[in-house]
Amino acid sequence: MNGGEVEKLAARMATGGRRRQRRAARQLARTRSPKAVRALATAYASPGTDPRVVSIAESVLAGLDDPAGVDAVCEVLIATGAERLSALVSTTGYRHSDPVRHAVLLFLIGDFEQYAELDFDGGMLAAVHAAADAELRSRLAARARVAGRMEWVRAVSGAQRRGELSDPEWEAVVATLTVTGRWDELWRLACEAPPVWGARMLRELAGQPWWPQSKVERAAFDKLAGLARACSEDLTRGHVAVKSAVLGTHLSSLSCLVVMPGELLASVSFSNEVRWWHLPSGDPAGVLRAPKRGVRCMAVTPDGTLLVTGDDGGRVRSWHLPSGKPAGTLRGHKYGVRCLAVTPDGTLLVTGDDGGTVRLWHLPSGESARVLTGHKRAVRCLAMAPDGTWFASGGDDGTVRLWHLQARAAIRTPVAQIDMANVERMRFTVKGDPERAWARLIRELVRRLHQYDIAVDTAGTAAFLSPTDIELDR
User: Fold this and answer.
1) Which residues contact 379 (CB under 8 A, 6 or more apart)?
2) In sequence order, what are the residues at sequence separation of 6 or more whose Cβ sits closer than 8 angstroms to the Cβ of residue 201?
3) Coil, strand, or helix at residue 401?
4) CA 54 from chain center: how many Å?
5) Among positive and negative, which fits the CA dihedral 271, 274, 277, 283?
6) How much helix, strand and coil, in percent to the nearest 5, is found in the chain?
7) Are 115 and 107 a contacting pair, CB within 8 Å?
8) What is the pLDDT along the chain (474 residues), one digit of tens a residue?
9) Is the whole model's pTM more than 0.90, yes or no?
10) Whose CA is closest to 271, among 249, 286, 290?
11) Dihedral pair phi/psi, residue 269, rounded to 5°
12) How far apart are CA 146 and CA 171, in angstroms?
């Protein structure tokens, strides 16, 4: 079984119906390749997995003798921290073939005795922490905080790493040092940590029966602790004193600001003047003048190559960046355009006008894609989903409308993950020949993928079926 087939089975096991999930699990169990083992371990780690699938996965995961398969299980545990998988690895005594990865695994499952023997100077943990994503770092911090592990504190609080620690990690550092009574280390770190955390440590130390041994250090501690007590914690709760800077002036009132990729800020005024500025310096970066009526809204594509404006005359204009040269005018609105939104991939523009109409446009061509009606009065605001599969509009009629870009979402979803019910629903709700064509194609692709899925699962977990087996309902 090749990698693509394993991926299809893994997707089916994650999103299909129970019978299809169990059959996929059995096929993966028969394969036992590292990729298949990883897929079974991922399902085993998920709390919502069907119990029969869990049983099938466990029968494989508990009896591995292939180092590559063991490594796959260990990697899933490191990535997820799942308690069920942690218990299985602890029971089986699996070891990752990479000593550094095995050290972090031992730390995560709480086997600190073996961890200390393997990573006696904390260098392995420090290396993993430096390359870890936010989720793994958070779980390492949580484990260290609960267990009071100084190895972790020393690994993450070195001088080169202090600026990279998140607030939860600093919380864990303070908690670990406090629980273990490491007051000297807390005092040393308080003088070197970011001030917000240094003040927190100083206030903690001031409440303990501890003082530095030397008179000089004690005097310094008393002074710093007094200053820390006087520091308001409002700064850590969002009330921040700010310094303002004037970036220059427009010829008339401003109507819109947009932060652009590449550390730029764009501003537009009612006199149709669009300016952009370098951030954070505020130095001028460019200027253009839009013709005709006042510009009311503005948007920039995620790649920063196209700026779009909407004006009182119902015109939607696009401009190449950073040159500022006109790219085209999108015509179709009969009323002033009040809001714009661009999909995350920069291929679709949404506009709303004073007449209550919402329009969709293809980018960068500017070709009209769809006209949406429903609002009774002006559309004032638009919000795009992070994945670009839906957007919301709000207007003077007091309604918020949710619009699903169904075909757009479906064409970017692997066929194995598409629900036929959604496909059938899409066939009757989409409008326009391009969308209908896509709906028909998607329907046939899904039907083809599942044309032999007529199995009804009642067999036990030990009965592994071949791809041509048919299970009959009794």
Assistant:
1) 338, 339, 352, 353, 354, 356, 357, 358, 393, 394, 395
2) 174, 177, 186, 187, 189, 190, 193
3) strand
4) 27
5) negative
6) 45, 20, 35
7) yes
8) 676 788 888 888 877 788 888 998 899 999 889 999 999 999 999 888 889 999 999 999 999 999 999 999 999 999 998 999 999 999 999 999 999 999 989 998 888 889 888 988 888 888 888 788 888 888 888 888 888 888 888 777 765 565 677 788 888 888 888 988 999 999 888 888 877 788 888 989 999 999 999 898 898 999 898 888 877 554 444 445 455 667 766 666 787 888 877 778 888 877 777 888 888 788 888 787 766 667 888 899 988 889 898 988 898 999 888 777 888 899 999 999 999 999 888 888 999 999 999 999 988 888 888 889 889 999 999 999 887 878 999 999 999 998 877 666 666 666 677 777 776 766 655 555 556 666 777 777 777 777 666 544 433 433 333 443 444 433
9) no
10) 290
11) -120, 170
12) 12
The token pair at 78 is 């490191």
Question: Which two structure tokens, joined as six digits, stand for 98?
Answer: 């990479």
Q: What is the DSSP letter of 233?
A: G
Cα within 13 Å of Cα(345), Cβ side: 9
Tokens of 385: 């989903």
Q: Return the sign of the alpha-carbon dihedral for residues 88, 90, 95, 99.
A: positive
